[in-house]
Design a protein that fits this description.
Layout: H1 2-15, H2 35-54, E1 57-63, E2 75-78, E3 81-91, E4 98-104, E5 117-121, E6 124-125, E7 130-131, H3 135-138, E8 141-145, E9 155-157, E10 172-178, E11 189-192, E12 195-205, E13 212-218, E14 231-234, E15 239-242, E16 247-250, H4 254-259, E17 262-265, E18 281-285, H5 288-292, E19 295-302, E20 313-316, E21 319-329, E22 335-342, E23 355-359, E24 362-364, E25 367-369, H6 373-376, E26 379-383, H7 386-391, E27 397-401, E28 413-420, E29 431-434, E30 437-448, E31 451-459, E32 470-474, E33 479-482, E34 487-490, H8 494-499, E35 502-506, E36 518-523, H9 526-529, E37 534-540, E38 551-554, E39 557-568, E40 573-580, E41 593-597, H10 611-614, E42 617-621, E43 632-636, E44 649-655, E45 666-669, E46 672-682, E47 689-695, E48 708-711, E49 716-720, E50 724-728, H11 732-737, E51 740-743, E52 757-761
Parallel strand pairs: 1-9, 2-8, 10-18, 11-17, 14-18, 19-27, 20-26, 23-27, 28-36, 29-35, 32-36, 37-43, 38-42, 41-43, 44-52, 45-51, 48-52
Antiparallel strand pairs: 1-4, 2-3, 3-4, 5-8, 6-7, 10-13, 11-12, 12-13, 14-17, 15-16, 19-22, 20-21, 21-22, 23-26, 24-25, 28-31, 29-30, 30-31, 32-35, 33-34, 37-40, 38-39, 39-40, 41-42, 44-47, 45-46, 46-47, 48-51, 49-50
């Protein structure tokens, strides 16, 4: 175009014609060849975008092993859709695992966070689980659970199994603690009313190693079912309980039998507690019964009670309200301790006065009872009434009884407490007799202090028979009493002979009445109970020969009985409690002597043989000058040395030693016994011995101030070279028991008085043996 314009201008100039104006236009010169590079540029850009969009991002996943994973074959699936594939397998640096590299789709990059998870899906076929069967055809694959929460990451550790319900973001995560791991595994179900609402996702030891912590997950729609007082227990396996009448099998489901499980519930009878949040901790009980637990109590039974191992039901009027959980023996091996759990609804009945006893088949004089327990097994019965429940204070420790109480709790009548040292045949239900007529029963008994406390109930129609003058005694079995002349057997009734019993008598019908709870001593027999009202205490250094019921005698006449023996810590001995007859109160004076009389057997002397039959007794003797009234005395195990006889002439003989003389040794005048030795003591100062003798009244005229006394004990042997051997003994009795002889030179002018003192020679002078005064005895 430029050339054409140039030629036109030359032509116009050459022709001399006036120039003509030209119309000039700019046109786009487009060549199709330029479309090729443009198409290439677009294709490259599209390929680049596609590569960036579908080429993916590399992620490294660590597995325990590479079994079932193949490069370029094993895919990564999310909800069944491929989102990546395996590109490389390599061992870890420590060769303990396998690092699997996968290429993930680029658009899932925002979902690769610390909360995302990968795990291998392969076929599972067992009694508890059937899953992944599609991989038998398609092959194993890696499952992917994406999460947009948390920090981005490209390195993961594969889970050992699918996270299951834990994949939910709004569920409830709880920790259950137990002493040991129950029948559970990861994936074990969590049940509520046999409906699966969650599962176990982890377990392990606590930080201190004392407990096992089981982590469970509960779906969000069921989280409101868990309160602060919710109970959890192991629901795995089978629980079988059986007796002769029924067979009980407990199981949540077939899966829980094989795989284990956890169940929970919230007691309906407890007040509503707040709903918990994630992180809360609960105890995991071993079974349903333990979880239902309720209120723990302790029941102490007598040692003879048989409770078996444990799990014995507790019943209240036929309804089961609890169970015995454990049975043990107390540290002092005197009681059986039962730890029990009762339902919370019986909490108002757990007060002082509630009674528990063992129910089992019984065969007795009254017939056969509780035969149903032969089939259903023994159980512990519980009893309470409204009055006792309202008046009693809450307790958790109870005294159990071996057998059914004789009367219902709260029965109308007079309740009394009898105190004694031992039961001696008495048992719960033993009758209380008045003139051999049953008027009450033994309700219970208990150890208290140094003795025993027995609770009895007198029926209302007979309670007027008891007042402050009443005396109670034991009539269990047979009572024997006798001596060489008489013998007596007492028995209240056949029933008391077998099952024990208590009798009482009221001496003064018009005496003061007693109220409920009054206390009385329980005597061992009727004789002691009715022996008197005057109580005294006699302290002995030991209890040899003493017992409850030992007689107290004054010159051969019974004046009292021993009622109790108590160990005295204060006096380091034994304190004897005794009752003295009412009309013998004049014996209760200071200075009165008490000593134990026992049989004595020997070559020298045999005495008190009657005590071989009737038993030892306590002898009492008044002093010469009685002191003021008192109730406390000192007793001895032998007759005191300085007790004068009631009649006779009392003399004191002084010797350098006692020799073979002893209490009871005879005193002779011309080889005739006229008295005896009643005692001896050391003189003051103790360089001599004072021997006390008693000369019978009829022979007291034989004694004068000039009388001479000598020892005739043993044998006198005189040996000489030329005169031979001389042996002298006054008598066989003196040879064995010792003795004293005396002589008087002339007729006494006047009798001497008691208390006169003479010297006792070892042997007589020859002149003494020649004295022969004529002394008239009367």
């Amino acid at each position: 175009m430029g050339q054409e314009n140039h030629h036109s201008e030359v032509d116009q100039a050459g022709s001399g014609e006036a120039p003509v104006g030209a119309n000039i236009e700019d046109r786009l010169n487009f060549t199709p060849i330029w479309l090729l590079p443009l198409a290439v540029l677009i294709a490259v850009g599209w390929l680049l975008w596609r590569e960036l969009d579908h080429g993916g991002i590399e992620v490294m996943i660590q597995f325990e092993n590479g079994r079932g994973i193949t490069v370029d074959k094993t895919e990564v699936l999310h909800n069944g859709i491929p989102v990546g594939h395996v590109t490389r397998l390599a061992p870890s640096h420590d060769f303990d695992a396998v690092n699997v590299t996968v290429k993930m789709t680029q658009r899932f990059k925002p979902l690769l966070t610390e909360n995302s998870a990968f795990w291998l899906v392969e076929p599972q076929l067992s009694l508890t689980e059937v899953s992944g069967l599609d991989t038998l055809i398609t092959g194993n694959y890696i499952a992917f659970s994406p999460s947009s929460e948390g920090l981005m990451k490209t390195q993961f550790t594969a889970l050992k199994r699918a996270p299951g319900m834990m994949g939910g973001r709004d569920g409830l995560r709880l920790t259950l603690t137990s002493d040991e791991l129950p029948s559970l595994e990861i994936g074990s179900p969590v049940f509520y009313r046999k409906l699966k609402v969650g599962e176990v996702f982890d377990y392990g030891l606590s930080e201190d190693g004392l407990f096992v912590e089981t982590q469970i997950y509960i779906q969000s729609e069921f989280s409101k079912l868990v309160h602060e007082n919710t109970r959890f227990w192991s629901a795995g396996g089978l629980k079988v309980s059986a007796n002769m009448t029924n067979l009980e099998v407990q199981a949540q489901s077939l899966v829980s039998i094989l795989k284990g499980g956890v169940a929970f519930y919230t007691p309906e009878w407890e007040e509503v507690k707040p709903v918990v949040s994630s992180g809360a901790e609960f105890s995991l009980y071993s079974d349903y019964d333990t979880a239902e637990a309720g209120i723990p109590i302790t029941i102490e039974f007598p040692l003879g009670v048989s409770l078996g191992d444990s799990n014995i039901p507790i019943r209240f009027h036929g309804q089961e309200v609890g169970r015995i959980r454990s049975v043990d023996v107390s540290e002092d091996v005197s009681r059986v301790i039962a730890e029990a759990i009762v339902r919370p609804e019986v909490k108002p009945a757990l007060v002082a006065g509630t009674r528990f006893w063992v129910v089992e088949p019984k065969l007795g004089l009254d017939g056969v009872s509780d035969l149903d327990t032969l089939i259903s097994g023994r159980y512990v019965a519980m009893d309470i009434n409204k009055r006792v429940m309202q008046a009693g204070s809450a307790v958790s420790h109870f005294k159990g009884m071996e057998t059914r109480p004789a009367t219902p709790i709260g029965a109308i009548g007079l309740s009394l407490t009898l105190e004694t040292d031992a039961l001696k045949g008495i048992d719960i239900g033993s009758p209380v007799l008045y003139r051999n007529v049953p008027v009450g029963f033994v309700q219970s008994y208990d150890l208290k202090g140094r003795g025993l406390s027995i609770q009895v109930l007198i029926e209302a129609r007979y309670q007027h028979l008891v007042n402050m003058s009443s005396r109670f005694w034991n009539v269990s079995g047979l009572q024997f009493e006798g001596d060489l002349r008489t013998f007596r057997v007492d028995m209240a009734s056949i029933k008391s002979l077998i099952s024990g019993g208590i009798a009482f008598s009221t001496g003064k019908p018009d005496a003061e009445r007693v109220e409920n709870g009054a206390k009385f001593p329980l005597f061992s027999d009727q004789t002691i109970a009715l022996s008197g009202d005057q109580e005294i205490e006699i302290h002995f250094d030991r209890a040899d020969g003493l017992s409850e019921g030992t007689q107290i005698r004054f010159r051969g006449v019974e004046v009292g009985r021993v009622t109790r023996l108590l160990v005295s810590r204060e006096n380091q001995g034994v304190t004897v409690k005794a009752l003295i007859d009412n009309d013998k109160s004049w014996l209760m004076r200071k200075g009165v002597h008490f000593w134990l009389v026992e049989p004595k057997l020997g070559l020298a002397r045999t005495s008190n043989l009657e005590t071989l039959i009737i038993g030892p007794y306590i002898q009492v003797e008044m002093p010469a000058i009685p002191g003021p009234e008192t109730t406390r005395f000192i007793g001895q195990h032998r007759e005191p040395d300085d007790i004068p006889k009631a009649k006779g002439l009392v003399l004191e003989l002084v010797s350098e030693s006692l020799g073979s003389i002893q209490r009871g040794s005879p005193v002779y005048y011309r080889d005739v016994p006229v008295g005896d030795v009643t005692g001896y003591r050391l003189a003051n100062p103790a360089d001599q011995v004072v021997i006390i003798v008693n000369i019978e009244d009829r022979y007291r005229r034989l004694i004068s101030n000039d009388s001479r006394f000598w020892n005739v004990s043993g044998i006198d042997i005189d040996v000489g070279l030329f005169r031979g051997t001389s042996i002298r003994a006054d008598s066989l009795e003196a040879l064995l028991a010792g003795g004293i002889a005396f002589a008087t030179p002339e007729k006494p002018e006047r009798p001497i008085q008691s208390g006169h003192r003479f010297d006792l020679a070892d042997e007589p002078e020859k002149s003494w043996l020649l004295w022969q005064p004529e002394i008239w005895l009367h």
